[in-house]
Amino acid sequence: MVLFAAPPPFHAVALMGLLSAILLSALLRLSSSSSYYNNNNNNNNIGGGGIDSLATVDFFSKTAFPEYFDTRMLGYARMCIALSIWITTFHMIFISTGWDVKVPYMKGSKLKRVAFHLSGLKTLCPFTSVSWILLGVSFTLNGIIALQVAAAAETTTAAAGGQQQPPVVSPWMLRSAFLIWQAAAPYSTLVSFVVRYVIWPKVLETGGITTNLKHWRNVMMHNMNSVFALTEMALLGGLPVHWPYVSVPPLVGCAYVIFSWLVAGALANQPGQDGPQFLYNFLDTTLGKTYSIAIVFLAIAMMIFFAIFATAGELLKFIGGGLLAHAVFVAVLSSALLRFRD
After folding, report:
1. Given this model, what pLDDT does residue 38 score?
2. Separation CA 283–CA 8 (nearest Å)
3. Closest Cα to residue 317, out of 234, 195, 228?
4. Contact, 210 vs 223, CB < 8 A?
5. Which residue among 4, 142, 304, 328 is buried most deeply as judged by most CB within 10 Å?
6. What is the pTM of this model?
7. Is pLDDT above 80 for 1?
């Protein structure tokens, strides 16, 4: 019998509400009324003092190697990366014919296992796509802020006595850019890790075809995503993720779980005949208690990869060194995450 709907069990809804409340409460406690121009707590202070003491123009406009490139070049580099992300996304939605998905549901699932096609806006539903878009928004905002700061630095007026004008950057843009980076950066490494060490080996183990994994679009979204994030951290602006904001990735993850509930009924090619579908077997709401356990482990995994990225940033500062040392750092970490062939 095909299910007409697969609503989440009560215990999963209660768990999601509890997790979301705890994570949101932890995030709100970090909020501050301090001015966004207050740089008393600079970007080297990971202890916080409020988001406005961290999400400053200085945080987004400093370059890791000012002897090699200035703030304007930093902004252009970020915008070039953002452009590559948006071109890939545009191609995926409007040009690509999409791809077929057949989820290997776990034992005990009540869902009908069928192949369904993702194309157009449906290609934005996988977590990889969500992570990719967050990275694109992050680089876009970070690039705009850097360019605004560079433009302000180059503009002087006689009324100001020839002094540099302060950059006019919206505090909400600064806060948004800061929070999005806290999720987008660790998500990039999470996606690359899962593809290399879980999905790709599983496809080979089951005798599947890895042609789609080698497609240039997936090379961008599964490999270059980590390269972009690591490059920002080590070579461009030196942007870290801050330990107190470890609640951000799992909070976004909770939103994604709720999103999976909303789109389950529309994913199948023939919803009336095939019933609801999920993109990942661990998000199958018909698994009972296993589903709630999966949600907990998903939140933990997101916090672990946040910690990994934060630790990498701390390690990079400890190692120090010049441009070459940082480039080697990016290459070593990337080699552990990327995969291009069987």
Report:
1. 42
2. 10
3. 234
4. no
5. 142
6. 0.91
7. no
